[in-house]
Specification:
- The protein has helices spanning 3-10, 15-38, 43-77, 80-86, 92-107, 110-133.
- The chain has 136 residues and is mainly alpha-helical.
- The mean pLDDT is 93.
Length: 136
């Protein structure tokens, strides 16, 4: 892989995009939490909050899955853990910290957690739309 390609892969998304996904997650969480209060007032508002929360979770957790997967793939493709372990010039404490960060990024199950929440949210959205269309 050329340096130009690597630079493109590791370039962070523009700040407005990152903020969009951040706020999508925050709004979705608030929407789900407020359902308990809205339940006492109006079933229509419960439905609105549920759809907002579900769509927000699809956006947020789909994004988190892609990011976590990308980080793990880069660490594996570029043998980052092995490179850190072989780097004799690194301060031993910093080397230990970098090893921990790289290794746990690859072995973490957080990307699978995000994937499950994403797919279950998509399924819930489809079921919700189906039930609403057919008045069930």
């Amino acid at each position: 892989m050329e340096n130009k390609e690597v630079s493109k892969i590791i370039e962070p998304s523009p700040k407005p995009i990152r903020l969009f996904f951040f706020w999508a997650g925050i709004i979705a969480t608030i929407a789900y939490r407020i359902i308990i209060v809205l339940n006492a007032y109006s079933p229509s508002w419960v439905k609105v909050a549920w759809y907002i929360g579900t769509i927000g979770f699809i956006l947020y957790f789909g994004h988190r899955f892609r990011i976590a997967k990308k980080k793990a793939r880069l660490i594996e493709e570029y043998n980052i853990v092995e490179t850190i372990d072989k780097a004799e010039w690194l301060d031993p404490k910093k080397k230990e910290v970098l090893h921990y960060l790289a290794k746990t990024t690859v072995t973490s199950k957080s990307r699978y957690n995000a994937a499950v929440i994403f797919f279950l949210s998509v399924l819930a959205l489809l079921v919700g739309i189906f039930l609403d269309i057919f008045g069930i």
